[in-house]
Specification:
The chain has 9 helices and 10 strands. By secondary structure, the chain is of the alpha+beta class. It is elongated.
Length: 261
């Protein structure tokens, strides 16, 4: 278990004296940053409430309020009689909303960024050609990104867009911005809907290495074709999510039965 400094006049306590925010919010942000920067690692035990009280020089109620907020964010979990532990990053995305990964995760308070692995023009497969309604001689731009959630790799995204769009995207900050946000906010291309298929697979050696999971681990495979507001296919993607770190959710409405049913 990683310890906090135990005297109220240590750097941990001095952090609280430099901000006008409520004490519990300052403690939450201090602990949150230490979780995100890897000081506290997944499944590691956090300092006890008594240690935090001594370190920050605050009441038990203040410490518990900070911990409750972190637990509601999914960053920590508690085991009765044993203490508080750091959660393994896990998030969910609502299938009922067409959102980019970063957009959805930031709204939930998660830190995200991408590592661009490649951006190049390629000859499309028959599947890509069909999904994007390309001609037989058309090329396509392939974008490969490794996506990170709370500084842990969570997915490998392989996206296919037109060569023309790819030539514009290569100039953009794809490490911190979603393609959806760029095309809508900067290029004025309005998005309409997406067709999504979800399946499962096991990670091969290369994918396992990228996602930092054992070879053969379960992976959520998502195939998504996004269309513009006027119905034209704009983006076709293969998304490979770590099975232990991501969940999709959707609200399903029941159609009322006819009286005879």
């Amino acid at each position: 278990m990683t310890s906090l400094p135990k005297h109220p006049k240590t750097p941990a306590a001095s952090v609280l004296q430099l901000s006008p925010a409520p004490l519990y919010a300052q403690i939450k942000e201090h602990l949150r940053e230490r979780i995100l920067d890897g000081t506290y690692k997944p499944h590691e035990q956090m300092p006890s409430e008594s240690e935090m009280i001594a370190s920050f020089g605050v009441s038990r109620i203040t410490v518990r309020q900070a911990l409750n907020d972190l637990q509601n964010e999914g960053l920590i979990f508690r085991i009765h009689g044993k203490g508080t532990f750091v959660s393994k990053p896990k998030a969910f995305q609502d299938l009922g909303k067409l959102q980019g990964f970063g957009e959805a995760m930031r709204q939930m308070g998660y830190e995200t960024y991408s590592r661009v692995l490649s951006l190049r023009d390629v000859k499309p497969s028959a599947q890509v050609q069909e999904r994007l309604q390309l001609g037989k001689r058309d090329k396509v731009c392939e974008l490969q990104r490794l996506r990170f959630l709370n500084r842990e790799p969570i997915s490998l995204d392989i996206s296919y867009v037109s060569v023309e769009l790819g030539a514009r995207l290569i100039k953009e900050d794809l490490a911190t911005r979603d393609v959806f946000a760029i095309v809508e906010n900067d290029y004025g291309i309005l998005l309409g809907h997406a067709d999504v298929q979800i399946g499962s697979m096991v990670a091969d050696e290369r994918l396992a290495e990228q996602l930092r999971v054992p070879d053969g681990s379960p992976v959520l495979f998502i195939e998504r074709t996004t269309h513009t507001m006027d119905g034209q296919p704009f983006d076709y993607e293969h998304l490979y999510y770590r099975g232990d770190a991501f969940t999709y959710k959707v609200r399903v409405e029941r159609t009322p039965l006819h009286p005879q049913d």
